[in-house]
Specification:
Radius of gyration: 17 Å
Oligomer: single chain
Helix content: over 70%
Order of helices and strands: HHH
Strand content: under 5%
Largest sheet: none
Number of strands: 0
Number of helices: 3
Length: 92
C-alpha cells in the first residue's frame, strides 16, 4: 500500500512541476523583455526591488512552515533571472 501511495504522491508532484515549469517559462519571457527594455542603461541587480518581491512572497505564503523554503526558492529564481538578463545584455 505505501508504494502505491508514494507513486500517487509523486504523480501529483510531477503534475505540479509541469505547472511550475510553464510559469517559470512565462516569467523568463518577461525577464527577457525587461532586459531588452533596460538595454545598457540600467544595472540588472536591484536589491530594493528584490526585497519587495521577497516581502510579497512571504505575505502570500499561507502555510508559514513553508515560508523560508519558498522565499529561498524565489531568491534562487531571481538570481537565475539576473544571470539570464546579464547574458542577454552582453549579447547585445
Amino acid at each position: 500500500m505505501k508504494a502505491e501511495e508514494l507513486r500517487e504522491q509523486r504523480q501529483k508532484i510531477d503534475a505540479i512541476d509541469q505547472e511550475i515549469v510553464a510559469l517559470l517559462e512565462k516569467r523568463m519571457a518577461v525577464v527577457s523583455q525587461i532586459a531588452a527594455i533596460k538595454g545598457d542603461s540600467q544595472v540588472v541587480y536591484d536589491p530594493a526591488r528584490e526585497a519587495v518581491v521577497l516581502e510579497q512572497v512571504a505575505e502570500l505564503v499561507q502555510q508559514k512552515d513553508y515560508q523560508m523554503a519558498i522565499q529561498q526558492t524565489f531568491k534562487d529564481v531571481m538570481k537565475h533571472s539576473r544571470n539570464y538578463q546579464n547574458q542577454q545584455l552582453k549579447q547585445g
